[in-house]
Amino acid sequence: MRAYYFDNLPGDQRLLHDYVPSRPVSKETLDKLNVKYWIIPVDGHEPKVDEIAKERGYKNRDLINVTKEGLGELYEEKIKTFFQEHLHEDEEIRYILSGSGFFDVRESPSDEWIRLLVEPGDLLVIPAGIYHRFTLDEKNQIKAIRLFQDEPKWVPHNRSVETDTNPHRIQYLKAIGVGA
């Protein structure tokens, strides 16, 4: 997985949006934000993914195939929804089987976007309460395993005054040492 600061320039969200020169983000910075990742080769990935799922208390999983063909008429709507800045009240964990895309996470307290390029073999955990978004890259395809602690659910809470005071947001900020 490659991590760097998003350049915030207008244009296609599916492009790299990397500064020139690039501003890489270290594993230590991601650790401070409680963003976790592993690189697990796709061939033979099941035992390691199962081990991490067990360690983190994940009991359910499904498969998502984000393509025009896979989502049909919902494709454009889903891509727009995924790219709206939001948080979840549960961790978001994805293991990439094929294709590629970008998860952008808000760094706190700077409020800068950090772009995470995910490719096959990347397992990413985005903590509950962090503002983030997702988009495909120019290949327009990603297939991923989604893991869930309980029943599969994906409920985005778009950033607003209300989400700034969401208990999961407050708990996340306290966990990373930001805010009261």
Automatic annotation (TrEMBL):
Binding site for Fe(2+): 86, 88, 92, 132
Swiss-Prot/TrEMBL catalytic activity: 1,2-dihydroxy-5-(methylsulfanyl)pent-1-en-3-one + O2 = 4-methylsulfanyl-2-oxobutanoate + formate + 2 H(+); 1,2-dihydroxy-5-(methylsulfanyl)pent-1-en-3-one + O2 = 3-(methylsulfanyl)propanoate + CO + formate + 2 H(+)
Pfam families with a match to the protein in the record: ARD
Pathway(s) where this gene product acts: Amino-acid biosynthesis; L-methionine biosynthesis via salvage pathway; L-methionine from S-methyl-5-thio-alpha-D-ribose 1-phosphate: step 5/6
Keyword Iron on entry: yes
Compartments, record wording: Cytoplasm; Nucleus
Cofactor(s) named in the record: Fe(2+); Ni(2+)
Positions of Ni(2+) binding: 86, 88, 92, 132
Annotated GO MF terms: acireductone dioxygenase (Ni2+-requiring) activity; acireductone dioxygenase [iron(II)-requiring] activity; iron ion binding; nickel cation binding
Cellular component GO terms held in the UniProt record: cytoplasm; nucleus
UniProt keyword annotations, A-Z: Amino-acid biosynthesis, Cytoplasm, Dioxygenase, Iron, Metal-binding, Methionine biosynthesis, Nickel, Nucleus, Oxidoreductase
Domain of life: Eukaryota
Comment on bound cofactor: Binds either 1 Fe or Ni cation per monomer. Iron-binding promotes an acireductone dioxygenase reaction producing 2-keto-4-methylthiobutyrate, while nickel-binding promotes an acireductone dioxygenase reaction producing 3-(methylsulfanyl)propanoate.
GO biological process, one term: L-methionine salvage from methylthioadenosine
Entry EC no(s): 1.13.11.54, 1.13.11.53
Record family assignment: Belongs to the acireductone dioxygenase (ARD) family.
Function, in words: Catalyzes 2 different reactions between oxygen and the acireductone 1,2-dihydroxy-3-keto-5-methylthiopentene (DHK-MTPene) depending upon the metal bound in the active site. Fe-containing acireductone dioxygenase (Fe-ARD) produces formate and 2-keto-4-methylthiobutyrate (KMTB), the alpha-ketoacid precursor of methionine in the methionine recycle pathway. Ni-containing acireductone dioxygenase (Ni-ARD) produces methylthiopropionate, carbon monoxide and formate, and does not lie on the methionine recycle pathway.
Name under which the protein is recorded: Acireductone dioxygenase
Species lineage: Eukaryota, Fungi, Dikarya, Basidiomycota, Agaricomycotina
